[in-house]
Write the structure tokens for this entry.
Amino acid sequence: MSAALVFEAAKEGFLDVCLSSQSITDCSYIARKKPLAVFQAAIGRILPFVDILPLTKDNLFKAASSDCPDFEDAALIACAEKNLCDIFLTSNTKHIKPFTTLPVQSPKEFVQLVKG
């Protein structure tokens, strides 16, 4: 539930959280086995306090020329870098770290770091 703690910290104004527009649609795909209303309620709870970053043509061009073997990961990295994000939080750290200069942590690692 570390990701929930990250969103709670954003809700309380302790940090800024950015999600790509693609991340939101990916969540809808993952949640497709649950009733639509469950997904809509969850997104409705986080949208008021997160920034949504669009995937742009520039992001996609950068992803297309990346050494990252996963195009979706490459696009998310390009989006985060273009928007000058300070850190990349993902549960997929091993697939992201080799392809960005941004610090990459899992939500659990980030929460442990912040808690000290």
